[in-house]
Amino acid sequence: MGDTVVNTDVKQVGSENALVIAVSHGAVFGAEDEDVHGVAFPLLQAVQKVNERLQQLKSSDSEPVQLEVVLICTNRAQQQQRDQVQTRTRAQGLQIHKFSFSCEDDFTDSLLENKVHLFLTTNSDEATQAANKGVLSAVLDPESACGPSEKLRIMFCGDAISDPGAESMSGSRQAKQVFWSHLGKIRQKFGVEDSPLTLVLLSSHGGIDGCCSALRSLRTAGLNVDEAYCLGGSPRKLIMSVLRPHFLLGAPEE
């Protein structure tokens, strides 16, 4: 069983009002002994922008919500250098709510213990382990995940939503519904203009009917996207470089 350390430097939120995102240490940082930024670094900066805006709305909001970040550390050196891990994130200006220290074999127990809604990693084996435990998971691709640090951009694979059998990285259907619902509530806090959170639907292989079906599924769960694209079989790599999402949920391999 892993050990979770609460970061007292960051204001905590009630679990019932938090959308909990867990990110692997390796996705946030590069080399162990260097201050190298990993693919998830700008993602966490963008998450902080969303939370800052939510905090501004809190005084007049009857139902406050927030994104909570859990850093998952499975490396043996990280286990032995807990203080250094926390100091490093503080020095980098990252607001991590909790640190979870566990071994590679039981880190999924920590995901369940912390009621994680989404697990992000650069390791496909870790994503598969989490998905097998029913935790919604996604692999961060350094080549395509290049979202800006000032706005959180989340992309959904319309093909996987309209045809669940096409989805390669998943969790349980219930986990997806819960994530969509929580995320939808957060997006509703902001207007159409100047939102720190943008939700995008991308359908690569299906036609317009499949895209519309995916939109209906998301809306039924309480989530409305800001942008929707139907590629009709064209490769998604080029448009991904233009749209610049931080991650793509439910995408099968091309």
Description of the molecule:
The chain folds into 2 domains: 3-139, Rossmann fold (3-Layer(aba) Sandwich); 152-249, no CATH class. 36% of the residues lie in helices and 20% in strands. It has helices spanning 25-28, 41-57, 76-80, 82-91, 107-113, 124-132, 158-162, 173-187, 208-220, 237-243; strands spanning 3-6, 18-24, 66-73, 98-101, 118-121, 137-139, 152-157, 197-203, 227-230, 247-249. Strands 1-4-3-2-5-6 form a 6-stranded mixed sheet, sandwiched between helices. The protein has a 4-stranded parallel sheet with strand order 9-8-7-10. Strand 5 (118-121), helix 6 and strand 6 (137-139) form a beta-alpha-beta unit. The longest helix has 17 residues, at 41-57. The model has no long low-confidence stretch (mean pLDDT 87).
Any descriptors?
254 residues, alpha/beta, Rossmann fold, 2 domains, four-stranded parallel beta sheet, 10 helices, globular
